[in-house]
Amino acid sequence: MSALAPLALLVGYLLGSIPFGLLLTKAAGLGDVRSIGSGNIGATNVLRTGRKDIAAATLLLDALKGTAAVLIFAPFSPEAGALAGFAAFLGHIFPVWLKFKGGKGVATFLGCLFGFAWPAGLAFMAIWLAVAYLTKYSSLSALVASALSPLVLWAFGLPTQAALLAVMAAILWVKHKENISRLRAGTEGRIGQKK
Predict the structure, then answer these.
(1) Which of 146, 68, 154 is nearest to 110 (CA)?
(2) What pLDDT shows up at residue 1?
(3) Which residue of 20, 69, 82, 112 shows the fewest CB atoms closer than 10 Å?
(4) Secondary structure element (H or E) that encloses residue 153, with its range
(5) CA atoms of 117 and 32, how far apart (whole Å)
(6) Which among 188, 103, 118 has a CA at the least distance from the CA of 152?
(7) C-alpha distances in Å from residue 29, one per residue of 22, 49, 66
């Protein structure tokens, strides 16, 4: 594990730092996604271009970054897989190519979760959908699902992965501080709400 750790961190980070949202919107002739909406490169902001297909592709690819990082290294060591997933998550949020200004990490978080234990990934999605159905807040759904996910991994007997995921969830919450402020103020946009 100690010999694999640096390689897992490096490969995971480089995978995670691929800015698919930016690359796909530019390839589609939509310009720089960082110039609209929240200014980040994630699927939610890509959706603001009006291209649902590009947003869906961004969501899928950003998730697969996390899954791929975990699955590349997990066969050698579960701990190495966990480190690679953690690094991919950090790479997405702090990509070296974009002066360390990336997305908020929800899709890559979910991708890592599927890599750790696919039933836990399904649990995240079920929690997200339940909260979204009840509240119509996408951000709140992600926050609740991310907070509960480490407990789900712990229940599956994966304490190392659960510990790293708890750190990832804390970072994800920090990245959503503006959403949290709007939720508390009652000004956060709801799913399907017209601007």
Answers:
(1) 146
(2) 59
(3) 20
(4) helix 138-155
(5) 35
(6) 118
(7) 11, 11, 27
